[in-house]
Amino acid sequence: MSHNTFGHLFRVTTWGESHGPALGCVVDGCPPGLTFTLADIQSFLDKRKPGQSRFVTQRREADEVKVLSGVFPSGDGETYTTTGTPISLMIENTDQRSKDYGEIAQQYRPGHADFTYDAKYGIRDYRGGGRSSARETAARVAAGAVARLVIPGVKIRGALVQIGKHKINRSRFDWDQVDQNPFFCPDAETVPVWEAYLDEIRKAGSSVGAVVEVVAEGVPAGLGAPLYGKLDQDIASLLMSINAVKGVEIGNGFEAAEITGEENADEMRMGNDGAPLFLSNHAGGILGGISTGQPVIARFAVKPTSSILTPRQSIDASGHNVDVRTKGRHDPCVGIRAVPVGEAMLACAIADHYLRDRGQTGRLK
Amino acid sequence: MSHNTFGHLFRVTTWGESHGPALGCVVDGCPPGLTFTLADIQSFLDKRKPGQSRFVTQRREADEVKVLSGVFPSGDGETYTTTGTPISLMIENTDQRSKDYGEIAQQYRPGHADFTYDAKYGIRDYRGGGRSSARETAARVAAGAVARLVIPGVKIRGALVQIGKHKINRSRFDWDQVDQNPFFCPDAETVPVWEAYLDEIRKAGSSVGAVVEVVAEGVPAGLGAPLYGKLDQDIASLLMSINAVKGVEIGNGFEAAEITGEENADEMRMGNDGAPLFLSNHAGGILGGISTGQPVIARFAVKPTSSILTPRQSIDASGHNVDVRTKGRHDPCVGIRAVPVGEAMLACAIADHYLRDRGQTGRLK
Amino acid sequence: MSHNTFGHLFRVTTWGESHGPALGCVVDGCPPGLTFTLADIQSFLDKRKPGQSRFVTQRREADEVKVLSGVFPSGDGETYTTTGTPISLMIENTDQRSKDYGEIAQQYRPGHADFTYDAKYGIRDYRGGGRSSARETAARVAAGAVARLVIPGVKIRGALVQIGKHKINRSRFDWDQVDQNPFFCPDAETVPVWEAYLDEIRKAGSSVGAVVEVVAEGVPAGLGAPLYGKLDQDIASLLMSINAVKGVEIGNGFEAAEITGEENADEMRMGNDGAPLFLSNHAGGILGGISTGQPVIARFAVKPTSSILTPRQSIDASGHNVDVRTKGRHDPCVGIRAVPVGEAMLACAIADHYLRDRGQTGRLK
Amino acid sequence: MSHNTFGHLFRVTTWGESHGPALGCVVDGCPPGLTFTLADIQSFLDKRKPGQSRFVTQRREADEVKVLSGVFPSGDGETYTTTGTPISLMIENTDQRSKDYGEIAQQYRPGHADFTYDAKYGIRDYRGGGRSSARETAARVAAGAVARLVIPGVKIRGALVQIGKHKINRSRFDWDQVDQNPFFCPDAETVPVWEAYLDEIRKAGSSVGAVVEVVAEGVPAGLGAPLYGKLDQDIASLLMSINAVKGVEIGNGFEAAEITGEENADEMRMGNDGAPLFLSNHAGGILGGISTGQPVIARFAVKPTSSILTPRQSIDASGHNVDVRTKGRHDPCVGIRAVPVGEAMLACAIADHYLRDRGQTGRLK
């Protein structure tokens, strides 16, 4: 009943649990002849790696990716060239403290998938959330690194734009700031606000939600397969598939509900270079499910981590009322580490549509 | 490059343009032995039919559905029984005024798919928007009516909860009101507000966005195929595929970003009937991509119709600057007619997952 | 539980029963900008049309195809141009004599799908075989005609090479003969043999099997998606999906089991034109699941029609022993009419892989 | 451009090359709650393991399978229980002699995928055939072992029924013989014939083709998804996807072309137990694409290994004429080791359809 593959021509299958020996993915449909180094993939994994600041889980994993297939090694053993066959990527789990979870093996954490996995499967790997753990997103990030190779002209970046009720100031949005702080925050002045707020959340053993924005620049016009493979539809599907995501927007999103057709219209003029020019981008780069050539912009809301220290009313697998309190090493704001995951999902969606349109005749044209 | 099918076991393929001879869908995977009358399907089509009030397009279509295959007629010719083979549903186009569109055949309406269809396909059926017309949603509604047969214990309803900046008052939400006004509005006191506002919009030749809420009650716990066939993921995908939709939420959606883990946790207790009881439903009935047994709740934002009377700057297919003003019979608030469409998409998503779990051995168990 | 779609990028969904109001298909993924006339499609349907000789069913259907969507009509109304949106093709059923089948409504014809459809679905459209009727292949042929538009450089032809134990003489194989006789026979001297034999079969109310060969010339090297979308795999799948087919071969097929590696090797030399030259084609144009550039050659075995006049032992739906004798207008050798169907399936498989490799960016490159 | 996944609900993705660090598969959609030991999987891998007799490749691989995900270990660490999440199986490559292949890195072996992989991808892992190596079938066999868990009531067996022109004597077919000789031969008297013949082939550095028969007993009536997910269609597709397979038959296969409807009809009677009884099985257990409840019988032809010692004319990647002679450790009759692979493919096809019909609600019903 699982369905752990996504994509139509650029196809990714992920596997693995939080506390098994390893996790990974198979990236199928990657064109041949693309060259990369391990570091090209590892750098994205390092962005989402736990234990990098006090605002994310203190679980420490090396998260070192191995390439098991789909490539031909260069003479010096430093670089790989894709051969067009499936690329198997594996990350071994190295810091598993299963005993942390013993207490909740039979309890359902409110807001967590514990209850539904038991309801569906009748068995559940309670160690670290098993398959429902955010740890699975490491495989997504590795796949996303491969996707970026497929669309080298496309620049994909992400930022955190809201934690709890604290939003960034849009007028101060600066991509250069994103790597300067532990929050992927594009607004330098918001950083201390979030820092203070999250310290408070963390010390209370609580958690809080967030909003992530991901942007793809350089997407050519014409990508998308209407009606039921629309580019925005596939982006929405993949972003919603990330753990804890409860909402997805394209362009101005829910704000579009509030305005008139005049306000919403992205007017056009011919540019001096003879190319069509949009005067605004309410559409988020997608009209009728097809890319316009403008930046593709998406946002998604991440709910607060459900593993918190404060006791909550719940039940256990035997049908008894219990109070659940989750120890272990959790993210006070899982939305932070969702930034590279959102980027990866956007990269995969665009790579898939790129190949649908350009085909896979071997070398990219 | 199109991809006009959705669903994994309950599969729907739609076809047809606004101004061709007909449009329709093929519903594949419907279990055998389900009995229905034409009226069972027609009633849902009548809900989205144009021309029913001054707040929707004045185009008048009978929208009469025909069943071409997949059924065995009863002796009296009144009822059909599904045979398990593909059900072909067709709706003939009867009120096409192609000449209304002649002027914009070469122009790109800002905010419309005109530009992107040309960018992708190099040819475009400009008559009424062709395939990108909201008219295609008639086929979705017909498919949704069949989906409801598959999940008879599930009650699916929709309502409009926001037009422009005017939201309903949640404390007055009353499903019984929804059919009492031309807006599918669940709050009687909001009706006159919307009426006055939309009259103004309509007279100005303008348009405005809206938010639709759809709810499924009676969904059994355990539906959903994590990780990449999550129930919320598939719902998000299908809602985002509806024309003009720019955002999708499940449960408390973007509000989840603003609150803490304590606030967001849907606590549980064993009910007096020995069944698990949730004390709240921030999750919108889905945890970890799997249904909880609570009502499944989704919302989606519909942007304002891009066809407006006010001239907007744009370009034409030859690369000249033009001012576009769209005549024709358009919806001042296309979100209204999106209500039955959203219901249909939710029904299809749930029916698909129902069959994935229950299988299709012939008769539903 | 049905699954009436095939193809990955060139996707065909068929629908319809033998005795419903109509049958048809939706061809999805056809690139835009291809021009055709109704006659381009109709000519292939006419090849498989019943009633053309005494050796096929005497059922008479006009089998006139209608194009309901996916095209833009030319000014003169004679030609259509594809728009990249789904092409809906419909053929109305006009000569249904349901009463012919009344007697076997409750009986299971040995060798027919009657028993299994009842076993699976618990309900069955017994009129003319319903969905399991060879009549469904009309939709395949229509789809195949569209597939040919996608691969204009590829020439696809079929011939009957065996009826019962009577095989053609390979040394006399002449494509020009195929249209000169009612059997699609490429060997003029075999025609009278088959004629005499089939007259005998027909008069006895019996039926007999046949072998069809289909060939695609001009297929570029490099088509096929190993490992599980191999070109030969997809051809085998589609040929096996044709009613009554029990075996499929590529190239020398089962003969390959009998020979040595030396004999089977298709040796190569560089041709005078600087292109690789194969000295033989045991492989049938496919190695490792990928086309070699040589003609793609496939054969399939069609079993004898199960509807025969001779009584056979069987049971009925109530579990009683009965003797079944099928009246009605059946094909003494359904393999004859399978020739254009096999061609269509080969065309669809190649078109699908052509698009996978070339992509669907709008206009074919 | 690869497509390395098969199955609709029971989905298998394979990855890996002959000479990379490892190969494996991800089995997705396996129901939860199934218990197995490593030996349950290993035993099938051992059947196809190289180096077991002088009639197969002398390459020696331990072929030890590891289970990386999708299971919950028992307390004693001996048994695993499936959790419904994807099962990742890995086999490390341990006996790689890449230098054996250096000479043919730039040459195209006639009858091998060398030429087509280069034609398609422009790059090729020439070491041991890379992805086109029969070594990939180890992953299939591992997946097949999991498939058998899903359908415990179904008994799947295979046998070699023909090597070169030497066929078994059907009247002596005895399943008990199959494991008594290195050929999976069901006819004791044929064993010495094959032995002498293959010794001759082996000493000549030649190779020869074969025919494999696979049978599934205990398949319930009603499996299959007509029209384009017919059970026989899916079996044909998977058998044809095995390396070197050139033909596939169901039931009496090509023989069906030679006989009359009377001869081919599988007559029925009600059995003494009140169940339908077939008096013969020409259909091979499938009618109209749906299982009848009789044994499902398929055969496939395997061509001779293309890697032979006898020099053959060919070309190299630079376009020069060369004579190719393949050293290395190859199978004189690769059809022998195809027996467990064919069994695995049949198991996967049936498991997939079993789940489509029964669903995946957690525990198998």
From TrEMBL, chains A, B, C, D:
<feature type="binding site">
    <location>
        <position position="329"/>
    </location>
    <ligand>
        <name>FMN</name>
    </ligand>
</feature>
<keyword id="KW-0288">FMN</keyword>
<dbReference type="InterPro" id="IPR000453">
    <property type="entry name" value="Chorismate_synth"/>
</dbReference>
<keyword id="KW-0285">Flavoprotein</keyword>
<keyword id="KW-0028">Amino-acid biosynthesis</keyword>
<comment type="similarity">
    <text>Belongs to the chorismate synthase family.</text>
</comment>
<feature type="binding site">
    <location>
        <begin position="303"/>
        <end position="307"/>
    </location>
    <ligand>
        <name>FMN</name>
    </ligand>
</feature>
<comment type="function">
    <text>This reaction introduces a second double bond into the aromatic ring system.</text>
</comment>
<keyword id="KW-0057">Aromatic amino acid biosynthesis</keyword>
<dbReference type="GO" id="GO:0008652">
    <property type="term" value="P:amino acid biosynthetic process"/>
</dbReference>
<dbReference type="Pfam" id="PF01264">
    <property type="entry name" value="Chorismate_synt"/>
</dbReference>
<dbReference type="InterPro" id="IPR020541">
    <property type="entry name" value="Chorismate_synthase_CS"/>
</dbReference>
<dbReference type="GO" id="GO:0005829">
    <property type="term" value="C:cytosol"/>
</dbReference>
<comment type="pathway">
    <text>Metabolic intermediate biosynthesis; chorismate biosynthesis; chorismate from D-erythrose 4-phosphate and phosphoenolpyruvate: step 7/7.</text>
</comment>
<keyword id="KW-0274">FAD</keyword>
<dbReference type="GO" id="GO:0010181">
    <property type="term" value="F:FMN binding"/>
</dbReference>
<dbReference type="GO" id="GO:0004107">
    <property type="term" value="F:chorismate synthase activity"/>
</dbReference>
<feature type="binding site">
    <location>
        <position position="48"/>
    </location>
    <ligand>
        <name>NADP(+)</name>
    </ligand>
</feature>
<feature type="binding site">
    <location>
        <begin position="131"/>
        <end position="133"/>
    </location>
    <ligand>
        <name>FMN</name>
    </ligand>
</feature>
<feature type="binding site">
    <location>
        <begin position="243"/>
        <end position="244"/>
    </location>
    <ligand>
        <name>FMN</name>
    </ligand>
</feature>
<keyword id="KW-0456">Lyase</keyword>
<feature type="binding site">
    <location>
        <position position="288"/>
    </location>
    <ligand>
        <name>FMN</name>
    </ligand>
</feature>
<keyword id="KW-0521">NADP</keyword>
<dbReference type="GO" id="GO:0009073">
    <property type="term" value="P:aromatic amino acid family biosynthetic process"/>
</dbReference>
<comment type="subunit">
    <text>Homotetramer.</text>
</comment>
<feature type="binding site">
    <location>
        <position position="54"/>
    </location>
    <ligand>
        <name>NADP(+)</name>
    </ligand>
</feature>
<dbReference type="InterPro" id="IPR035904">
    <property type="entry name" value="Chorismate_synth_AroC_sf"/>
</dbReference>
<protein>
    <recommendedName>
        <fullName>Chorismate synthase</fullName>
        <ecNumber>4.2.3.5</ecNumber>
    </recommendedName>
</protein>
<dbReference type="GO" id="GO:0009423">
    <property type="term" value="P:chorismate biosynthetic process"/>
</dbReference>
